[in-house]
Amino acid sequence: MKLSRSTLSVALLAALVAPAAHAEIAFDVIGGSEISFEGLVQADYNDFNNDFANLNGDAPDGKSSDNEMRRAELVLKGKGPGNIEWVLGYDAKADKWLDVNAKYKLGGNANHFFQLGQFKQPNSLEELSSTKNNDFISKSMVTNTFGIARRLGAAYRYGDNNWGVTGSFFTRELTEHPAPTPHGPGYGVRGNWAPINDKGSILHLGLSYVDYDTFQDTVRLRARPDADLAGQRLVDTGNMTNADRQKTIGGEAMWVTGPVKLQGEYMKTSVDRYNNGNALQSKDFDGDSWYVSGLWNITGETWGYKDGVPTTPLPDEPGRGMWQVGLRFDTMDLNDGTVIPGATPTAASRIDGVLGGEMDTWTLGVNWYWRSNFKFMLNYVKVDSSKYFIRTPAAPYADNPANNNVLVNRVVDDNPDILEARVQLYW
């Protein structure tokens, strides 16, 4: 669903004049289960000041924009009977199921439970945090590229308010995607520890690991320039065939002191590849990515901590709202290979391994939480990326027919900047 600029303006005006509502709508108690209804609607606008690639793809000129309904999530939740909690979520915009699972709390302890169904896997502080409270409009490259989101599976968690260990076994996503699907079956584990956990003072540390089978022996890793509506990925490994398993280890840290929050994550992913007789296309791949960000609540509110992730408060003064400013540095390296020069100075070169490119971004953001249900976001993103220009020849190499990648002897630097805006309604 596309939204015109006038439609976005009407949506913004409607949000400003709408009365405040409660953050959750309670339905009834049915069969011993207290049922409530939640929703999240987001509309985004991106303006691209392109450099090399046309990030929009719809316009032939150097500057273009796009707008779109980003999410339209509808969620039913139930508490009970007994120590059972369940959730049923659906995103009407993406036409896919969200959390669809049931949880059994052992001894009534919210930090000690079994979970069955589709849920977010135990990795990535940013992914596990609530989408409606994202610090920036686009999640970081490490989260979007290496993180494992919702998958069908089973999980067990043990801990308390200050620490926890979660393990899971998972398979595909509940909503089918056209082949190849992103991930095959696997397992994950995450440990979180908050040695300091007081009001206005939190120190969080976390470590995660996921290991899963690839689908159809193919892996492709790529990232947008921290702009969800961008039609181009500026770093891209292409299809890595002969892939057996993908393994990702991640570290995370967060520090809250009063109205300031500092947060960072690092992930390194490895793709194990088997040898099919083509040495150039059978090398294992390693790539990594990390970000560090800072957020300041100008109006003085602070964060809470629950289930190993931060919780965002409501404004102290609903009529004034909560104002935030933030800055994030985000980086990704998908290069794990070398260039083999051609036999002559004019001959094309070949690649030994994978050269997916490198990208750094700086994101400056302002957020306004107004009353209990509205959020407005404005981000400016500056991108610095580089990637070898690669094409596929009409005929393969005679000495190695399976290696069809030909490298044109130049590196493409692509350094656009992007202005992003979001209007959000949630309850």
Automatic annotation (TrEMBL):
Q: SUPFAM superfamilies this protein is in?
A: Porins (SSF56935)
Where is the signal peptide, in residue numbers? 1-23
Q: InterPro entries annotated for this entry?
A: Porin_dom_sf, Porin_O/P
Q: Which Gene3D superfamilies does the protein's record reference?
A: Porin (2.40.160.10)
Keywords in alphabetical order, please. Answer: Signal
Concerning Pfam families, the annotation shows:
Porin_O_P
Claim: rRNA-binding is one of the keywords in the record: no
Protein name listed in UniProt: Porin
Transcription: is it a keyword of this entry? no
Q: Which domain of life is it from?
A: Bacteria
